[in-house]
Amino acid sequence: SYGLSDNAGLSIDTVVVREYSPAKALIPADGALGLSWTEVGFSDSGWKSNTTGVGYDTQGDYNYLINLNVGEMQNVNETVYIRIPFEITELVNFDTLTLYIKRDDGFATYLNGHLIPEASALANVGNLSWNSGATGNCSDAAAHNFEPHDITAHKNLLQVGDNVLAIHGLNWRTGSSDMLILPKLVGSRAEVIDVNSVLEGYFMAPSPGRVNGGTMANLGPAIYNVTKDPPRPANNEAVSITAKVRETFNPVKSVTLHYRVMYG
Predict the structure, then answer these.
(1) CA-CA distance, 23 to 52, in Å (whole number)?
(2) Which Gene3D superfamilies match (predicted)?
(3) Whether the Cβ atoms of residue 14 and residue 188 lie closer than 8 Å to each other
């Protein structure tokens, strides 16, 4: 979309928990932990460790997203417990707090031991156990994109010092060929600026119902009407994928599109 950055201020994003953050993961063998694993002071010294994303993929499509491999959960348990510790040195009064996640399949979120119902998907929230599974499956293709969940109502759970983002990852059936959880947590606030510095241009991100974000003057070509779900080809028949590419500010000399289809 096109317009003016807000005349009262710009929306400034702060990454509270970045993607590929240090994390711990456990495939629980029973329900002995209860919800203690979601709390800040819980000892996770015996858990697997690496950076997010957490998951596995026997076909390799998610491998570029996965650093903490939990392939041992396949054919054993649909649940994985994930702890992502982070530190806050100074509290910021965010206007919005958003959890972004790439996931396959379901999940439920806890912030400093408190369940965040708004940040869940394909999960029987409130009735989860150590071996719960997702209530359905999601598209492998969709899992490559961040999905936003507004958790602004729970921003007061953030505290100076140690914090933990805990996620109950849920797979759809133990025999699934893949599983993925890759979150990031972003706070946003409006910052007062000189009205004369308001800029006209294209918004870098949509912000319906919120303060307009920053704009950019240079915009790449517009890509649209991309072929979706083409018919299955016969043997040795090519799949035809088309897209329309339109110049915005500058002429388009050549176009190379990379199209990826995932299989579950």
Answers:
(1) 6
(2) Galactose-binding domain-like
(3) yes
Question: How many residues make up the chain in this entry?
Answer: 264
- Structural domain spans, the chain: 2-8+193-216, 10-190
Nearest alpha-carbon partner for 185 in 247, 82, 96, 105:
96
CA 228 to chain centre: 23
What are the Cα distances from residue 235, in Å, to 37, 228, 238, 263? 51, 20, 9, 18
Q: Which fold has domain 10-190?
A: Jelly Rolls (2.60.120)
Task: List C-alpha distances in Å: 87 to 132, 141, 161.
Answer: 30, 33, 5
Cα separation, 91 vs 108, in Å, equals: 25
What is the chain's pLDDT, residue by residue, as a tens digit (264 residues)?
555 555 545 678 999 999 999 999 999 999 999 999 999 999 999 999 999 999 999 999 999 999 999 999 999 999 999 999 999 999 999 999 999 999 999 999 999 999 999 999 999 998 999 999 999 998 888 899 999 999 999 999 999 999 999 999 999 999 999 999 999 999 999 766 555 555 566 665 666 666 565 666 566 777 878 887 777 787 878 888 888 888 777 788 888 877 665 544
Q: Give this prediction's pTM.
A: 0.72
> Is the Cβ–Cβ distance between 184 and 151 less than 8 Å?
no
DSSP state at residue 46: T
Q: Residues 128, 190: contact at Cβ < 8 Å?
A: no
